[in-house]
Amino acid sequence: MQPDLVDAVCSALVPIPGVRHVTRGASTTDGLESLSAQVDVSSADAAIERLATFGIEPDDVTLWRVPGIQPLGWRAQTRSGESGGQVWAEIVGRADEHAELASSYLVFMVAAGIIAGIGVLTGSAVLIVGATAISPDLLPISATAIGLVERRWQLARRATRVLLIGLAASAAGVFAATALLRLFGSIPETLVLADTTIGEALTQLGPGSLMVAATAGVAGMMAFERPGGAAVGVAISVTTIPAAAHVGAALAMGRDDPMWGALVVLLSNVVLVATAVTVAASLPATQDLFDDDRADVSAAGLLWQIAVVTLVATVIPEELAFRGILLGAGRRAWGRRAAVVTSSALFGLWHITPTLSTAAGNQAVGDATGTTAGRVAVVLGAVAVTFVAGLVFCWLRLRSRSLLAPVLAHLSTNTIAFVAAWVLLRTSGH
User: Fold this and answer.
1) Residue 369 in contact with residue 356, Cβ under 8 Å?
2) Residue-wise pLDDT tens digits, 214-223
3) Which CATH code fits 86-283?
4) Mean pLDDT in the chain?
5) Percent above pLDDT 70 for the chain
6) How far is it, in rounded angstroms, from Cα 392 to Cα 208?
């Protein structure tokens, strides 16, 4: 910066909470002076905004992350210095990187597409989940949303271009792999993709697929550029990679109808995910609902919560019970409609105890349940919401003829709130 600004900038930075040790550095060969300071992650954006008032742009500011050790009591009070925290300027910088087409990105997209394509051809849910785990499409989708939020239209256009090229590369990879398998006679010519176990879910747009896309978008933005982001990115890829693979496989099989259905599903999911990501990046109005002490865990703890506590210990057992055993037995005993309503009602009642236990760690819920009327209102609201969710999960189960779809939708909805709370604890001053 110009030497005549140094004293004024120092005086402006010192009062910001979390900014310490502001130091005047050496002069450069072109007559400028450097300034350094120790800044908590939660204060970095405020410091950058203060520098902007002196005409110093974010691109002229360099951020270094330095590991530190502080007393546990001090960390619990300030939540400063945590490696999981994020700076908005840093996120925007990463978005710029992810808006550039990289060869490694294309390799992963093609690989994910081919694996998902084999899953589409064989009806293997395991292969499709494996494909979503290696797909990097969360990165350009989130970069597009950040460009929209920041009104950096060029960034949004570049990121959208990268996303579309990646999805096209995935479909092209599946097309080549399917054509090769047909050449060697490994695929029956009578195979109809829409009639496979998961074909119907990939070619027909419905409320269940729309809900998964929207909720996955919120979770993806909350986890963007964080250590736990890769795990949440699977929820994003579930809405895109299988449909792109279906398009490529259908083209190689020479049948138009299932291809057009999958293309509509793919484009609709991309638009919904991008919209949800943009909203999650721009609206902090609901942050108090995510101020939850139970999310005060490390990045490894977040992965454990998602993969083990949520998926293995909660989602899978509940889906087996409510959409597997109860729904199946109810259809045989009472018929489809009664089975869906009964299973969903029991699913709603099942969440009474978890709702009340949430008040212990969530301040907003705890305040709402401070009175008997408040507890009744919160419980009834939770039962109603989970009843509707149960209806959607039942629809996904019956439509896809598989438990995979409701499991993924259930995992996405359960993950969003926890990931949002985890992010909030690392980005707020609470």
Assistant:
1) yes
2) 555 555 555 5
3) 1.20.1080
4) 74
5) 65
6) 6
Structure confidence at residue 210 as a pLDDT band (50, 70, 90): low
Residue 285 has a pLDDT of: 46
SS (H, E, C) the chain: CCHHHHHHHHHHHCCCCCEEEEEEEEECCCCCEEEEEEECHHHHHHHHHHHHCCCCCHHHCCCCCCCCCCCHHHHHHHCCCCCCCCCHHHHHHHHHHHCCCCHHHHHHHHHHHHHHHHHHHHCCHHHHHHHHHHCCCHHHHHHHHHHHHCCCHHHHHHHHHHHHHHHHHHHHHHHHHHHHHHHCCCCCCCCCHHHCCCHHHHHCCCHHHHHHHHHHHHHHHHHCCCCCHHHHHHHHHHCCHHHHHHHHHHHHHCCHHHHHHHHHHHHHHHHHHHHHHHHHHHCCCCHHHHCEHHHCCCHHHHHHHHHHHHHHHHHHHHHHHHHHHHHHHHHHHHCHHHHHHHHHHHHHHHCHHHHHHHCCCEHHHHHHCCCHHHHHHHHHHHHHHHHHHHHHHHHHHHHHCCCHHHHHHHHHHHHHHHHHHHHHHHHCCC
**Which pLDDT tens digit goes with each residue over 299-333?**
777 777 777 778 888 888 888 889 988 898 888 88
Alpha-carbon span 196 to 122, nearest angstrom: 8
Q: Cα separation of 187 and 185, whole Å?
A: 6
The boundaries of every CATH 1.20.1080 domain in the chain are 86-283
Please say if the pLDDT value at position 161 is more than 80. Answer: yes
CA distances to 16, 48, 77, 279, 326 from 82, rounded to whole Å, are: 19, 19, 12, 26, 44
**pTM (predicted TM-score):** 0.51
pLDDT in tens, 372-416: 777 788 788 888 989 998 998 999 888 877 888 888 888 877 776
Please give the Cα distance from 415 to 300 (Å, whole number): 15
Mean pLDDT, rounded, for 44-63: 80
Half-sphere exposure of 287 (CA within 13 A, CB side): 15
How is 38-64 classified by DSSP, letter by letter?
A: EE-GGGHHHHHHHHHTTT--GGG----
- CA torsion through residues 281, 67, 12, 426, sign: positive
Structure tokens at 411: 């995992």
Q: How far is CA 127 from CA 114, 181, 199, 401, in A?
A: 10, 17, 14, 17
